[in-house]
Amino acid sequence: MREVLPDLLRWWEAGETVGMGTVVATFRSAPRPPGASMLVGPDGTAVGSVSGGCVEGAVYDLAQEVAGTGSPVLQRYGVSDDDAYAVGLTCGGILDVYVEQVSRETMPWLGDVAAELERGEPIAVATVVEHPDPERVGRRMFVRPEAPQVSRLGPGRSERSGLRTSTSGGLGSERIDDAVRDDALGLLASGHSGTLTYGPDGERRGEGMRVFVWAFAPKPRMLVFGAIDFAAAVARVGAFLGYHVTVCDARPVFATNTRFPDADEVVVEWPHRYLAAEQEAGRIDRRTVITVLTHDPKFDVPLLEVALRLPGVGYVGAMGSRRTHEDRELRLKEAGLTAEEIARMSSPIGLDLGARTPEETAISIAAEIIAGRWGGSGEPLAQTDGRIHRDDTGGFEARPRAASHLNHQQRRDARHAAT
Questions:
Q1: Where are the alpha helices (H) located in 142-225, listed in sequence order?
Q2: Where does the record place Basic and acidic residues bias (predicted)?
Q3: Per-residue DSSP letters for 249-284?
Q4: pLDDT greater than 70 at residue 161
Q5: What's the Rg (C-alpha) of the chain?
Q6: Phi and psi angles of residue 274, each rounded to the nearest 5 degrees, phi first
Q7: What share of the chain is helix, strand, coil (3-state, %, to 5)?
Q8: How far is it, in rounded angstroms, from Cα 244 to Cα 235?
Q9: Which of 89, 141, 142, 298 is deepest in the core (most CB within 10 A)?
Q10: Which domains does the chain have, with CATH numbers?
Q11: What confidence tens digit (pLDDT) does each residue in 283-304 have?
Q12: DSSP one-letter code for 218
């Protein structure tokens, strides 16, 4: 919904009625992820997309109908590859689309949620999209995590207590609400929307009720350390990919807003101190990506000591030549890092694209981040088999670089042997 929210809010504030279709589940090679929405405005205008063009016409007609009747509909689109053109879903995937009426009467909460999103506050909106009792379809609950408490254990040490939540609305029973609240927090932590299945009264091993959770998490963070020309290009690409970008460098003459106009913030601080402080404040999570572009031991070794020990951080990449990489690994070993911790580092940073310019290098780094997030190989699709779109992994997986590289080589050898 986030990408269509400005238009939706404009019509909502004007008191208009809108039809909205939202992807709530996907199977096989569906082109759009859960949470993608399409609007049909009061003047017939279509905004957004649920399938990249495959079934937009069918969803458009259904959204117009639901906007008039007010009765929500859960509709499945998609058939086998052999007959895909009959429905229009040419990729052969399957989409479940929940279509509902949006107005001030049906969504009185929309303005408040939009304001929370504008402030960057996380919120999960859970909606019953399927239930044996039609009266429960469309019920909603709102889950908001509250900041955990931090207890001081001594200089430089702290401990975070369990996450507290506040909820409003309800899905029909206390049992359902309790089950959905816990699962919605998990989706919110990963930043991914999805559909959950339960028994009619929230039984975890049952079926019959499906609840779609919009997980509106703040933007994931990209931390760019080193105020160099490559950092400006990386910040530009990071902003384009939807990251909240921070550039950090200890040198005030280089770390300026003028040099990094695409960054959300520019910080003058020693990189390792800044990262440690952000971690202690709870602003680092598994969606966070860290790019170390300083390639200067006095900056990057203390920084990497902190970064490679962060629990669950999404990606840590460090720039430098092969010689710099070998020297860096040696220094990190001398600093006490284990082989497993060092293996979390992507160094030299980026995929082998033959990049030379800062802009090309930024694309190389972004490609590696994307591949790590979704489990991609980084190889040409023309030379791979299987599905193009992978399942939602819910975040990065820490994979030792050497093992990943070996798997790539094994696949290349297998292809050469086959030819």
A1: 174-190
A2: 410-419
A3: ES-TTT--TTT-TT-SEEEES-HHHHHHHHHHTT--
A4: no
A5: 24
A6: -65, -45
A7: 35, 25, 40
A8: 9
A9: 89
A10: 4-102 (no CATH), 109-146+164-216 (no CATH), 221-383 (3.40.50.720)
A11: 898 889 999 998 788 899 999 9
A12: P
